[in-house]
Design brief:
Blueprint lengths: L1 E6 L8 E6 L2 E5 L26 E3 L5 H4 L2 H6 L5 E4 L1 H32 L13 H8 L2 E3 L6 E4 L2 E7 L7 E9 L2 E7 L22 E5 L13 H14 L4 E4 L5 H14 L8 E4 L1 H12 L6 H8 L10 E3 L3 H6 L8 E4 L9 H8 L6 E4 L8 H6 L4 E4 L2 E4 L3 E4 L9 H9 L7 E5 L3 H15 L3 E2 L6 E3 L2
Parallel strand pairs: 3-4, 4-5, 5-6, 10-11, 11-20, 12-15, 12-16, 13-14, 13-15, 16-19, 20-21
Antiparallel strand pairs: 1-2, 1-22, 2-3, 7-8, 8-9, 9-10, 17-18
Length: about 475
Amino acid sequence: MRLHFLGAVRQVTGSCYLLEAEGLRLLVDCGLFQERAYLERNWAPFPVPPETIDFVLLTHAHLDHCGLLPRLVKNGFRGAVVTTAATRDLAEIVLQDSAHIQREDAEFKKKRHRREGRTGPYPVVPLYEEADVAAATALFRTLPYGRAVPLNDRVRVTFHDAGHILGAAMLELTVGRDGDERTVLFSGDIGEWHKPIIRDPTVFRRADYVVMESTYGARPRTESAPVPDRLAEVINATVRRHGNVVIPTFAIERAQELLYHLGQLLRQDRIPHLLVFLDSPMAIDVTEIFRRHRDCMDEETLLLLESGEFPCRFPGLQLVRATAESKAINRIKGSCIILSSAGMCTAGRIKHHLVNNLGSSRNTILFVGYQAIGTLGRQIVDGAKTVRIHGVRRRVKARIEQIHGFSAHADQTGLLRWIGALEVTPRRVFLTHGEPDAVETLAGLVRSRLGYPATVPEYRQEATLD
């Protein structure tokens, strides 16, 4: 077997691995690179001809895992994209939204570049169009959790619950037969234990090779208070200043978890009964998909649904689809809460809300997810005094807050808990999907605490799996 690392190595986006095994070429994920330093990789020719790939095995529907699928299909891939039913439904929305945003951004950039008399470093055209998304989603084939399915007579795959977002999976690939088998485990993104709505991550007793994410591998996550308490604290402090709370929101899972907590706080009268705007058509659609996939939900959420209470809805919640409605939010007098995508502020309506709220010390910009190096969100979190939005430098006067407990990724403690559940020492653990400090720190801990051989691969490195 040969394993090729084609993305998410020593950084956290562009997840993509090629496994060559028993006559098959399997691509695990086909993600978009979102950090500014790596954007050119989205435009580069694929390292392997797309028409030679037999299957894409998709772990989940975040853009950094599925965002280049339409381009792969546009360039010749004709195999099946195998994933869970929930991921299929979510990925269709995510990819259509991505195509729409890319088209809008390309049009906006063309106008700005013409006005400024310059050209940028990348083509001012979308990576793909809505028609390419439709061609890609037509290739999706779904599997339930826990069922081993043959890809040929010597390779089979099993999808396991990752506890990350709705439908997210860990992939267990078994290669060989008649007692001569090797198991390759792809962790995908490993979720937190005891999160609302979805189930906990699956753990495994054995694997020969493990490709494991390390987003939060640098340190355990620390919060001064539980998530609901911190959320209430930030909202109440902002309301006392007569400001708005603007929350850059990932449309999948993070938006739904935020709505869950906001609904609970409002029902308990722990925060004022403000207008809450979910200004993300995609997040609205995703919330409806949650209703359809009860098979992915934990017992607590199922009990709420059986009682007739949908955990992501409450009085005062406004679902904003139209652009005109989104613009009207900025004319509201008095405090409100605005949830808008994208979560790293790389595109979408959140940029407009930042333009209207960053310049006032009354307001709070609250980050509830990981901000990759080079993204606008990371610049703001790191304390930039000015940031460039829509080609204009904007002063940052708003209060900047961050709540780490919302993360859909396990922290260092959770990652060690997950890999430490193996009862047999693996032949090798490959640490990916993390910035250099995170992967190197976690690799050191995997070696020193668990005694497992751990490797941090480089971009486009190849490894032989005996």
